[in-house]
Amino acid sequence: MSQRVDPTLLKELKQYGAVGIEKCFNCGNCTAICPLTSDDHLFPRDMIRYAQLGLKDRLLQSTDPWLCYYCGDCTRTCPKEAEPAETMMAMRRWQTAKYDQSGHGEKLYTSEREVGKAILRYSLVPLVLLLIYHIVTGFSNIDTNQVVLNKFAPVMWVWAVVLFHFAQLGFRLLRNTASMFRHIMRLDEEGQPKIPIGIYVQEFKNFGIHVLTQKRWLDCGEDRSRWMKHLILISGYALMLMLVVGLLWWFQTDELYPIYHPQRWVGYLATIFLLIASGEALIGRMRKREEIHRFSHPTDWLFPSFIFVGAVTGIMVNIFRYLYLPWPTYIIYTIHVMAMMAMLDTEVGIGKWTHLIYRPLAMYLEAVKARAAEQPSPAVVPAA
Fold it and tell me: Per-residue pLDDT tens for 249-274?
């Protein structure tokens, strides 16, 4: 199959954070040192070569950027300081933007101004909805004598908005995931046989395993603490999503439960996990001591920043409720919801939400292709 050459690809990748990619002379040292590379996936060398040659279609079809966990060994041993690890990160951003056919991801990855506009636009949605609600009710539901959060923001109305919002985000993520699948599994166009549906079913366990554990990360470099930090972050995030999306009627309540109540300790546990993980990520990006943080793209700050702000404002809402301070509670609650809305609408399409799906999906599809390759070829029946 012929490959079209795009001479602008190198320049385009630099917009997504690629650094020094033109310095690479393809010595292969990066691939030799990488603990995750294999005979079928010679990254990052192949990926850099595709970029230098302008092979956009081949790069878009590859799962290799998602098979890399950025341990930084390749960059530390590169004789030309071509920053291959950061190039792989830039390729993940680039692929993510290409999977999103709405153009949302491309705008946010290539323009800090668009990121600012998106955050402002999305954060105003809950503020406007609350204002409309209180204007319609004549501001009679703002109790300033005591903290009654569920009069200020009725939990069932908030929950309805949350569920509608998540349905929208889920559709967006599903659409982008389907786009990724089409790009990677373009077998018919290359004259290859269709993969039987049974193989997809047999290998689906790989997707579930990697979504829940990201266990491949344990083979990436010597620092296994990164896997644990990621697990803490995702565990806290998953717990909080469960409380907000599935159990908001139970979680947002004006009843002050005793400390031993599950509603308290589940919320506290999720908050502690989120504070520890997001705080560590932000400190690492500020210090720039680790390889992974040396060239932080502006969008790399979004997820930990949003999570940190969300955790801190959530704690403040709780404190003000226990101090019986109505206005501080209502104001911080509004800021909290604004930050969470901005995080979700900005992140779904470019950030950690997509990584949580795309990386396991890439590994799953590679397992499918490997299993299909092991199947015996259909016998060729000679013509009569």
Answer: 999 999 888 888 999 999 999 999 99
Structure tokens at 85: 């690890």
| Rounded Cα gap, residues 318 and 310, in angstroms | 12
* Three-class secondary structure assignment of 308-324: HHHHHHHHHHHHHHHCC
Q: What's the CA gap between 6 and 54, in Å, rounded?
A: 4
pLDDT of residue 380: 46
Measured torsion, CA atoms of residues 291, 34, 372, 378, in degrees rounded to the nearest 10: 140
142 dihedral zone (left: phi>0; alpha: psi -120 to 50; beta): beta
List % helix, strand, coil for the chain (3-state, nearest 5).
70, 0, 30
Neighbours of 17 (CB within 10 A): 23
Helix (H) or strand (E) holding 381: none
Q: How far is Cα 305 from Cα 60, in angstroms, rounded to an integer?
A: 29
Non-local (6+) Cβ contacts of 326 within 8 A are 142, 143, 144, 145, 146, 147, 148
From the list 281, 302, 314, the residue with the least C-alpha distance to 344 is 302
Q: Cα torsion for 282, 286, 287, 292, to the nearest 10°?
A: 70
Task: Measure the CA–CA gap between 282 and 194, rounded to whole angstroms.
Answer: 45
Q: Which two tokens stand for residue 277?
A: 């993980």
Give the SS3 label for residue 198: helix
**Cα–Cα distance, 37 to 88 (Å, whole number):** 13
| CA separation for the pair 55, 61 (Å, rounded) | 10
Q: Which amino acid is at 360?
A: P
Per-residue pLDDT reduced to its tens digit, 24-37: 999 999 999 999 99
Q: What percent of the chain has pLDDT over 90?
A: 73
The letter for the amino acid at 121 is: R
User: Which among 70, 66, 4 has a CA at the least distance from the CA of 35?
Assistant: 70
Secondary structure (3-state) at 306: helix
**70 phi-psi bin (left φ>0, alpha ψ -120 to 50, beta other):** left
Residue 136 neighbours by CB distance under 10 Å: 9
Q: Are 216 and 226 in contact (CB under 8 A)?
A: no
- Is the separation of the CB atoms in 350 and 105 below 8 Å? yes
CB 243 within 8 A of CB 270: yes
Spatial distance between the Cα atoms of 31 and 37, rounded to a whole number of angstroms: 6
